[in-house]
């Protein structure tokens, strides 16, 4: 039996990541650079036997669809979503620092904090671990998770 493995792939560049904006649960699409990155990933992984799981956010869906190609089905799981960045969603680092200087400094000192409505890393880790365990229990071949 072929060994099982899970490959984690973060979504390719989105229009907001290109402009330095906190995304969180917002749903911007891939940028032109991100679409090209996804196409390269697809070619690199085209011969791999795999199932593909993805967050349901558009940037991850677009990345997963490119990797899956027409011959694979993408399964979606909300537990794979990016961290909820709360009030910082859509803002640049500079905008956040200007609006919430104390909270931003506290977060820089300890990124696990849930300041300004940010989802605490412990919660992100718990849901990601839950999703990974569920996916691993189902897997029989090499997997890709976006």
Please sum up the structure shown.
With 146 residues, the protein is of the alpha/beta class. The protein contains six helices and four strands; from the N terminus they run βααβαβαααβ.
Would you spell out the secondary-structure blueprint of this structure?
Elements: E1 6-8, H1 15-18, H2 32-45, E2 51-54, H3 58-68, E3 74-76, H4 93-99, H5 101-109, H6 121-138, E4 143-145
Parallel strand pairs: 1-4, 2-3, 2-4
Protein described:
With 146 residues, the protein is of the alpha/beta class. It is 43% helix and 9% strand. It has 6 helices and 4 strands. The protein has a 4-stranded parallel sheet with strand order 1-4-2-3, with helices on both faces. α3 links the parallel β2 and β3. α2 packs parallel to α3 and α4 packs across α5. The longest helix is centred in the last third of the chain and has 18 residues. It starts with 5 loop residues before the first strand and ends with a strand.
Shape: globular
**Largest sheet properties:** 4 strands, parallel
Strand percent estimate: 5-15%
Look at the structure and give the mean pLDDT.
Answer: 89
**What string gives the helices and strands in order?**
EHHEHEHHHE
Number of strands: 4
Number of helices: 6
Q: What are the segments in which pLDDT stays under 50 over at least 5 consecutive residues?
A: none
Distance, first to last CA: 25 Å
Kindly name the structural category.
alpha/beta
Strand order of the largest sheet: 1-4-2-3
Helix content: 40-55%
CA gyration radius, whole angstroms: 17 Å
